[in-house]
């Protein structure tokens, strides 16, 4: 969903200051959504929707969706970056003001892959996945 990706990107790029993603990645412009074109950078962070589908029906009969987003970290300091991602997204409830498609979004940590090495960038690689729960906002007119 567009709203989910927008909130993820805003949270990632808004993390500035000491110990932030921006400082761990070595500056701004190193965070991209998977569909964005451009040369691969090292270090960098790329996120993309892994899978998604309908979730449970809440007691108020609002339909929910569960979207899994994967974050691929290309950096030799990937343990620090993945820890920061967990601090940013594990158990986080997003502010839903101004959203057009959803009525609320929250996220939890889901999975962490094995350590890897990217041959093209010659840098360590790590993948982590988060689950995003969203309630669909009422659409008017239908």
Jot down its keywords:
alpha+beta; elongated; 142 residues; STM4215-like; 7 strands
| Radius of gyration over all CA atoms, rounded | 16 Å
CATH topology: STM4215-like
Number of strands: 7
Structural class: alpha+beta
Shape, principal axes of CA atoms: elongated
Measured by DSSP, the beta-strand proportion falls in 35-45%
What is the CATH architecture descriptor? 2-Layer Sandwich
CATH class: Alpha Beta
Treating each run of at least 4 consecutive H or I residues as one helix, how many helices? 3
Q: Could you give the distance between the termini? A: 18 Å
* Strand/helix succession: HHEEEHEEEE
- The number of domains is 1
Largest sheet: 7 strands, mixed
Low confidence ranges: none
Mean pLDDT: 87
Helical residue percent? 10-25%
Notes on the protein architecture:
With 142 residues, this protein is α+β, with helices and mostly antiparallel strands. The protein has a single domain, classed as 2-Layer Sandwich (STM4215-like). 20% of the residues lie in helices and 42% in strands. The protein contains three helices and seven strands; from the N terminus they run ααβββαββββ. The chain has helices spanning 2-13, 21-25, 78-89, and strands at residues 31-33, 44-57, 63-74, 92-93, 102-112, 116-118, 123-136. Strands 1, 2, 3, 4, 5, 6 and 7 form a seven-stranded mixed sheet that branches. A hairpin with a 4-residue loop joins strand 6 and strand 7. The mean pLDDT is 87.
């Amino acid at each position: 969903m567009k709203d989910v990706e927008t909130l993820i990107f805003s949270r990632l790029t808004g993390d500035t200051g000491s110990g932030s993603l921006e400082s761990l990645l070595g500056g701004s412009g190193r965070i991209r959504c998977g569909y964005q074109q451009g040369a691969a950078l090292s270090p960098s962070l790329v996120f993309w929707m892994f899978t998604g589908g309908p979730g449970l029906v809440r007691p108020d009969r609002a339909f929910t969706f569960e979207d899994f987003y994967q974050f691929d970290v290309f950096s030799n300091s990937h343990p620090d970056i993945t820890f920061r991602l967990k601090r940013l997204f594990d158990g986080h409830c997003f502010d839903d003001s101004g959203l057009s498609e959803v009525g609320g979004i929250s996220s939890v940590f889901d999975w962490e892959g094995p350590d890897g090495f990217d041959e093209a960038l010659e840098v360590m690689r790590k993948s982590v996945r988060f689950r995003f729960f969203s309630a669909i906002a009422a659409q008017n007119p239908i």
